[in-house]
């Protein structure tokens, strides 16, 4: 069994003094101690085996934190996660395009250097040198 509070996995070994997770044979339980409004949340237990997964959940209301407010907070967090993920994907896509353009330019330059290493020297030859190295025109 895995326990969750507002979709965050609860650590079975580090919960004290706030909570404890118990297992007695086939019976599993979560015990919360000295609840405050910070503990108001959607709690979920999920069981997994080779046949699949089954879950159940419940809302713990504490003080002024009623079910409506707890769900509002949960959806606000979900919306924030989606916004953050969308921004990360857009930034990654943007970096990918920049990297692709930079990589393509670098590959092009590497190709030009490899294809014609003396290309730069040929550009520097003067017009008279080029004429001196070319064969003379034949007259007929």
Topology:
Elements: E1 2-5, E2 8-9, E3 19-24, E4 27-32, E5 41-49, E6 52-60, H1 67-115, H2 119-124, H3 127-133
Antiparallel strand pairs: 1-2, 1-5, 3-4, 5-6
Verbal overview:
The strands form 2 sheets. The chain has a 4-stranded antiparallel beta sheet. Strands 3-4 form a two-stranded antiparallel sheet. The chain starts with a strand and ends in a 7-residue tail after the last helix. It has 140 residues and is of the alpha+beta class. The model has no long low-confidence stretch (mean pLDDT 82). It contains 3 helices and 6 strands, in the order E-E-E-E-E-E-H-H-H. Strand 1 and strand 2 (8-9) form a beta hairpin.
Label this structure with key terms.
two-stranded antiparallel sheet; alpha+beta; 3 helices
Query: How would you spell out the order of helices and strands?
Result: EEEEEEHHH
Poorly predicted tracts of residues:
none
Span between termini: 99 Å
Strand order of the largest sheet: 2-1-5-6
Rg:
34 Å
Strand tally is: 6
- The backbone outline, from C-alpha atoms, is elongated
List the quaternary state of the chains: single chain
- The total of helices stands at 3
Residue-averaged pLDDT, rounded? 82
Strand content: 25-35%
Helix content: 40-55%
């Amino acid at each position: 069994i895995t326990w969750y509070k507002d979709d965050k996995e609860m650590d079975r070994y580090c919960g004290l003094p706030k909570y404890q997770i118990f297992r007695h044979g086939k019976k599993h339980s979560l015990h919360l101690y000295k609840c405050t409004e910070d503990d108001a949340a959607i709690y979920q237990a999920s069981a997994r085996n080779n046949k699949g997964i089954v879950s159940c959940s419940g809302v713990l209301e504490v003080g002024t934190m009623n079910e409506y407010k707890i769900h509002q907070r949960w959806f606000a967090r979900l919306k924030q996660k989606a916004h953050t993920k969308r921004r990360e994907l857009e930034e990654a896509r943007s970096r990918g395009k920049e990297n692709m353009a930079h990589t393509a330019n670098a590959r092009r330059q590497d190709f030009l250097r490899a294809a014609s290493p003396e290309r730069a020297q040929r550009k520097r030859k003067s017009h008279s040198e080029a004429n001196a190295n070319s064969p003379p025109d034949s007259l007929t």
